[in-house]
């Protein structure tokens, strides 16, 4: 029973952790790409990494935090333009290939030993080097705050200040997505997802709309990158292909083309992983599966879950069956 | 726009008579000049590898009338449609380096503006709106959303305006009103909240046409509007197309149904092997021996599938014809 309680507490902690919020934000961005516009972006982690590097390096360079944040956004805009200009006129599959490889390029350049004094190479940048200005903004004071089952520092890394700002950003972005997707602009995007040529025949500039969507989702990805590294450290390999895959899993689990789907998906994603890991650790004897193996087992279950979701509930938890964002048949 | 649909398609309205009269004096030859051309196309060719799919040297489309584009399968009708609506680029398009000689490059002007190389979006913005042979209903949008998407001048289609609803809500209400009006005309109003993907094939055709009308086009291009539409719907569709002409719109359509072509077109352009081979009013063109041989076949005047038209008289006539043919064959 004790062990079950430990698992439950771990799940509750992960449910509100800034890392979960970061995954939710990245999934909100990907939702604009994939859920609403039908752009197959397999490099959302690349956008996160771009944002994270731009933010951290700017702060270390001595810029104020607001400016550093803006630079992160501008960097994502430029990255989206570089990816979009050559590929958005082509069929969707090409964007998938280009984004996948571009994200890998960003990661490889980031961890390259040639840039060690800027990016920290494969060791990355420790949080203490860029976290200071953000912690200084806190008005939560010192000490610890208890709130229900959660007990954290008010301001320290992984404390309430980080949690509150991260989820505030999630709420803001949900509101933003809701506002633009009910608008005629969102309608054009959904039209493009269904059939570009039909929308083109109605006199809409499809290329421009796809570019806007790519930039917007990418910028949100960069915000996710900043939120992701603030309480932790910046390490290129933590935002690689597997991160893109987690984001896709969260999005499809929660429901693509819905406002809250990505958020719910991100929470369920981590909760499910911890639940499987906890249960396996408790009920499977150590001789069959040791601690490290339960973690790997949890990832396997996540992978199977993604397959089952796509096959049996392609609209995700919150999605509308009638408005599937992709055709499974 | 009037909401009443003519019950019989052969009724000739005043506007219809005027449309026919406007091209009455035009000689019946391919590429002939029209008194008031809305669309002029020059030197448009399209090659796929070694095959020339379209090679139209000159074609004019008269304003305010219904022009039918007919021809056998593979004649290049749809390719020609794609070329003039900007969905495809002519092989003879002017190029920066090389390309065709000046005066031989593809050129098309619509309503006084050059529309040769500006792309589909801008062509549509000029007021030339098309539909597709294979319908492109946006399946996972509702019927009403499909309609709204067709509207012009919605400020909310700009990302920055979109965030503030009051800036676009008024226009949206106007658009919705117009969409519902059009849907009522096309008998789709009760389906407005259904996903477009759940409509039948014929209803999708209607929706696509209604959606194209949302932007108040100057000229509407219909690619096989009757394919897959049931006979009852065909009647009302014919009425709709005539009503468009009567409202002052120019209609160009591709169709294989010769009855439809005969009933509603004011002018017929015949294509074969990529070229315009004949032009003229329906009656004249369909009596052209070249057109009959290339495309129509000897029995094109009789609808062999429609039993209601097959009166005793017609049946006897056909029987007599068959006997005559058999006798002729027997003699030969």
UniProtKB/TrEMBL annotation, chain A:
<feature type="transmembrane region" description="Helical">
    <location>
        <begin position="297"/>
        <end position="316"/>
    </location>
</feature>
<dbReference type="GO" id="GO:0015658">
    <property type="term" value="F:branched-chain amino acid transmembrane transporter activity"/>
</dbReference>
<feature type="transmembrane region" description="Helical">
    <location>
        <begin position="159"/>
        <end position="180"/>
    </location>
</feature>
<keyword id="KW-1133">Transmembrane helix</keyword>
<feature type="transmembrane region" description="Helical">
    <location>
        <begin position="63"/>
        <end position="85"/>
    </location>
</feature>
<protein>
    <submittedName>
        <fullName>Branched-chain amino acid ABC transporter permease</fullName>
    </submittedName>
</protein>
<feature type="transmembrane region" description="Helical">
    <location>
        <begin position="213"/>
        <end position="231"/>
    </location>
</feature>
<keyword id="KW-1003">Cell membrane</keyword>
<dbReference type="Pfam" id="PF02653">
    <property type="entry name" value="BPD_transp_2"/>
</dbReference>
<keyword id="KW-0472">Membrane</keyword>
<dbReference type="InterPro" id="IPR043428">
    <property type="entry name" value="LivM-like"/>
</dbReference>
<dbReference type="GO" id="GO:0005886">
    <property type="term" value="C:plasma membrane"/>
</dbReference>
<keyword id="KW-0812">Transmembrane</keyword>
<dbReference type="InterPro" id="IPR001851">
    <property type="entry name" value="ABC_transp_permease"/>
</dbReference>
<feature type="transmembrane region" description="Helical">
    <location>
        <begin position="34"/>
        <end position="56"/>
    </location>
</feature>
<feature type="transmembrane region" description="Helical">
    <location>
        <begin position="243"/>
        <end position="276"/>
    </location>
</feature>
Automatic annotation (TrEMBL), chain B:
<keyword id="KW-0067">ATP-binding</keyword>
<keyword id="KW-0813">Transport</keyword>
<dbReference type="GO" id="GO:0016887">
    <property type="term" value="F:ATP hydrolysis activity"/>
</dbReference>
<protein>
    <submittedName>
        <fullName>ABC transporter ATP-binding protein</fullName>
    </submittedName>
</protein>
<dbReference type="InterPro" id="IPR003439">
    <property type="entry name" value="ABC_transporter-like_ATP-bd"/>
</dbReference>
<dbReference type="Pfam" id="PF12399">
    <property type="entry name" value="BCA_ABC_TP_C"/>
</dbReference>
<dbReference type="InterPro" id="IPR051120">
    <property type="entry name" value="ABC_AA/LPS_Transport"/>
</dbReference>
<keyword id="KW-0547">Nucleotide-binding</keyword>
<dbReference type="InterPro" id="IPR032823">
    <property type="entry name" value="BCA_ABC_TP_C"/>
</dbReference>
<dbReference type="Pfam" id="PF00005">
    <property type="entry name" value="ABC_tran"/>
</dbReference>
<dbReference type="InterPro" id="IPR017871">
    <property type="entry name" value="ABC_transporter-like_CS"/>
</dbReference>
<dbReference type="InterPro" id="IPR003593">
    <property type="entry name" value="AAA+_ATPase"/>
</dbReference>
<dbReference type="InterPro" id="IPR027417">
    <property type="entry name" value="P-loop_NTPase"/>
</dbReference>
<dbReference type="GO" id="GO:0005886">
    <property type="term" value="C:plasma membrane"/>
</dbReference>
<dbReference type="GO" id="GO:0005524">
    <property type="term" value="F:ATP binding"/>
</dbReference>
<feature type="domain" description="ABC transporter">
    <location>
        <begin position="39"/>
        <end position="298"/>
    </location>
</feature>
């Amino acid at each position: 029973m004790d062990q079950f309680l430990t698992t439950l507490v771990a799940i509750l902690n992960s449910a509100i952790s800034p890392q979960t919020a970061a995954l939710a934000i990245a999934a909100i961005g990907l939702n604009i790409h994939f859920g609403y516009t039908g752009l197959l972006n397999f490099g959302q982690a690349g956008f996160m990494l771009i944002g994270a590097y731009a933010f951290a390096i700017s702060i270390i360079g001595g810029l104020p935090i607001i400016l550093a944040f803006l630079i992160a956004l501008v960097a994502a805009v430029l990255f989206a333009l570089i990816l979009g200009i050559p590929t958005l006129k082509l069929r969707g599959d090409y964007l998938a290939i280009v984004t996948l490889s571009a994200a890998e390029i960003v990661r490889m350049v980031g961890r390259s030993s040639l840039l060690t004094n800027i990016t920290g190479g494969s060791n990355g940048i420790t949080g203490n080097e860029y976290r200071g200005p953000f912690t200084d903004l806190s008005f939560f004071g010192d000490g610890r705050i208890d709130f229900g089952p959660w007990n954290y520092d008010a301001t320290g890394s992984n404390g309430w200040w980080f949690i509150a700002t991260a989820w505030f950003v999630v709420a803001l972005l949900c509101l933003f997505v809701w506002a633009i997707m009910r608008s005629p602009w969102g309608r054009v995007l959904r039209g493009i997802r269904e059939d570009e040529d039909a929308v083109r025949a109605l006199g809409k500039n499809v290329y421009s709309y796809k570019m806007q969507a790519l930039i917007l989702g990418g910028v949100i990805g960069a915000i996710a990158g900043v939120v992701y590294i603030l309480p932790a450290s910046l390490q290129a390999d933590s935002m690689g292909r597997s991160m893109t895959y987690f984001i896709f899993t969260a999005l499809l689990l929660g429901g693509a083309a819905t406002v809250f789907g990505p958020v719910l998906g991100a929470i369920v994603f981590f909760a499910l992983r911890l639940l499987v890991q906890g249960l396996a650790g408790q009920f499977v004897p150590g001789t069959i599966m040791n601690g490290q193996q339960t973690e790997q087992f949890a990832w396997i279950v996540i992978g199977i879950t993604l397959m089952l979701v796509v096959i049996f509930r392609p609209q995700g938890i919150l999605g509308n069956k009638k408005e599937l964002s992709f055709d499974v048949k | 726009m009037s909401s009443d649909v003519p019950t019989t398609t052969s009724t000739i309205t005043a506007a219809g008579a005027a449309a026919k009269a406007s091209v009455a004096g035009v000689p019946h030859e391919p590429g002939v000049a029209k008194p008031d051309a809305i669309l002029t196309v020059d030197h448009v060719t399209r090659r796929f590898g070694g095959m020339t799919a379209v090679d139209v040297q000159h074609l004019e489309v008269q304003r305010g009338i219904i022009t039918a584009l007919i021809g056998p399968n593979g004649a290049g009708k749809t390719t020609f449609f794609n070329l003039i609506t900007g969905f495809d680029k002519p092989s003879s398009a002017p190029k920066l380096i090389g390309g065709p000689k000046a005066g031989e490059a593809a050129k098309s002007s619509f309503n006084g503006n050059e529309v040769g190389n500006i792309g589909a979006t801008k062509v549509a913005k000029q007021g030339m709106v098309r539909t597709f042979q294979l319908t492109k209903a946006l399946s996972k949008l509702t019927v009403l959303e499909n309609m709204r998407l067709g509207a012009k001048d919605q400020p909310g289609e700009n990302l920055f305006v979109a965030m503030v609803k009051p800036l676009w809500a008024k226009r949206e209400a106007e658009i919705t009103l117009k969409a519902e009006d059009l849907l009522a005309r096309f008998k789709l109003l009760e389906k407005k909240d259904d996903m477009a993907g759940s409509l039948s094939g014929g209803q999708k055709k209607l929706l696509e046409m209604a959606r194209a009308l949302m932007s108040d086009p100057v000229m509407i291009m219909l690619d096989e509007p009757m394919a897959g539409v049931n006979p009852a719907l065909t009647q009302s569709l014919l009425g709709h197309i005539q009503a468009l002409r009567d409202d002052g719109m120019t209609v160009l359509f591709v169709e294989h149904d010769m009855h439809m072509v005969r009933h509603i077109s004011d002018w017929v352009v015949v294509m074969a092997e990529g070229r315009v081979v004949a032009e003229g009013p329906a009656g004249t063109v369909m009596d052209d021996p070249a057109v009959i041989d290339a495309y129509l076949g000897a029995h094109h005047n009789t609808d062999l599938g429609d039993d209601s038209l097959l009166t005793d008289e017609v049946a006897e006539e056909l029987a007599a014809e068959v006997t005559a043919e058999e006798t002729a064959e027997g003699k030969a």
